[in-house]
Amino acid sequence: MNFVYWLRLLKTLSQIKGNAFMSKRPLRIADIAKKAGVSPATVSRVLNNHPYVRDEIRQRVLKIIEETGYQPNLAARSLATQRTGILGFVIPRTVHTFFSDPYFARVTEGIAQACNAHDYTLSLFLFYTVEDERRMIPRLTRKGLVDGIIVQSTHLQDEVLMRVMDGEVPFLLAGRPVAPLNVSYIDVDNVAGGYQATVHLLQLGRKRVATIAGPLTTSAGIDRLEGYRKALRERGLPVDEQLIVEGDFTEMGGYYAMRRLLPLEPDAVFVASDGMAVGALRAIREVGKQVPRDIAIVGYDDLPIAQSTTPPLTTIRQPILRFGARAVEVLLDIIENGSSPPRRVVLGTELVVRASCGATI
Amino acid sequence: MNFVYWLRLLKTLSQIKGNAFMSKRPLRIADIAKKAGVSPATVSRVLNNHPYVRDEIRQRVLKIIEETGYQPNLAARSLATQRTGILGFVIPRTVHTFFSDPYFARVTEGIAQACNAHDYTLSLFLFYTVEDERRMIPRLTRKGLVDGIIVQSTHLQDEVLMRVMDGEVPFLLAGRPVAPLNVSYIDVDNVAGGYQATVHLLQLGRKRVATIAGPLTTSAGIDRLEGYRKALRERGLPVDEQLIVEGDFTEMGGYYAMRRLLPLEPDAVFVASDGMAVGALRAIREVGKQVPRDIAIVGYDDLPIAQSTTPPLTTIRQPILRFGARAVEVLLDIIENGSSPPRRVVLGTELVVRASCGATI
DNA sequence: GTGAAAGCGCTAACAA
DNA sequence: TTGTTAGCGCTTTCAC
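The joint structure predicted for all components is written out below.
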């Protein structure tokens, strides 16, 4: 019994059993048409919910589709319609916190849910090296792979953004671009968020309010800091540049930023992300100071972790899931109706008071 | 100047500037062929690195492709080759911790990196509702969308798994299936990991070693607990079922599990994930006990957070990134060479000693 | 309402 | 080595 014979045997067996070991040829639209005694065009109409199909025939076709488990071949459909039903979510190389910042997992979830709801498939493009970007971007930006792209906003002049802008595929930025580009974006009102947080601390009577900012190469970092400055300015308070330390949205970054801040004896800190706030709490605990008694803390994001720190974090809630969902909706709108004029969607934030700010609840 | 006129103007402008505002028709292979004075077939050969193309011609074609920025239409290629160049990563609805457990973000990263390296695109299928699954699975399991699927292993008899097994698309389970199915999977040696952790605690002289297990509906939960049992058994120690508490891989779950354990006064706990360990540490801190003096802790995963807890976590390191990378490799192998015989890949674990176990380093 | 036929843009077998 | 040609499976005019 030689190998080829054995292979053929297996193949036969698998066909008899009808399992997928070596699968028979998938059904095509023509097969369904024949079984239903209609033309492929009619089956296609049924598939795509076109009007002008006699109801009796529609039912007959649907029944056969149901019985056979027929699924249209998506590659063929894409070729014919010039649509793939896939949306891309792109994280440029310069966003190195995709993993360490739970924020991104959450946004991804929001986008995924919205894709499910709108019957789109989500493709994730995580770039790590220049080589990754060089190879994948050209595909991404040509028709035939994705119908639209959500690009995570990042450093000024990021190459990914430039090339996506230059491409043929509709796109939307997740996060305001740092430079004032004429593109569509969706963002959270980070200035308002930073402002809310800082005002809250000031209203609680704190005198030396410091901030651990996000990376000042990102609009989120810049805007939250701007909100902080605005709050001080409006109340006629001086902005002490020493009390502003830049972090990188990671726990470690928050820890080290807080260590730099501690000798300056702030009595409150607005930390521009919950992740960094966790690190800041650790730094404070290590020197034996108490939160909120000695130092009050307000974070940003309202990730689940904010409820589990000791003490629980007062924080600025971003509607992260809704952010992802809206991003998909806006992108679909752009795909349908063109990218002009650019869409600008800004979602609001909300102060969530817990224990770390020292407010009596 | 009415609206239509204005639109037409913009369109003209955009064409002059050559930007993508309203893009001209993308180039096809025939256009390149004409410019190069060869046939489409030759261009195709160049594109696909076929031999038997005269070098001079190859260069000429490549030059034109370069100049024009031509990119082949992927839908058309997919239709012709019956390959899409897309791999799917599926998270069934019953895995509700995709967001809260950083483990998944990490695995996703590993898979994404490997996809980049192998020139595949990654599609993410996060299911939340039965409805999601009902609608998306049939697509997923028919040729034309993805070339292969990585399915996150989950509860016994999960519907997703059943339907993927029944489909036409090659697949690989991430995580041993709970039931002994005749399918390919990749897993970490969780029994060995649980064993290592428990033995370590016993060797440090701990007498009442408890465990916070993962969900016992998952193979990871089951196997890590089995490792714990095995360690006690081998040393002739009794397994006190009271000292085994089931968690859910979340921080909250770890917290509550530890609260149940505290009255039983264990002097050590093997916690089956770092996330749960963070919760356990919090519960211990709240009752004023000290780690590792009163209670020693060993976690599982070696996520970055393990380095930032107080005290830093001794833990079992899983090669998560490598797990994702290997998963892709094995899946590609299955796609190339068929799913029979089933592949079984099991990666090793490693004990990382930090402070929480009380070992003098 | 329905069917015939012409693509969608690429690959691959076959012929030259 | 290269070109010709026939699909890949679906949608969509256009005619009936």
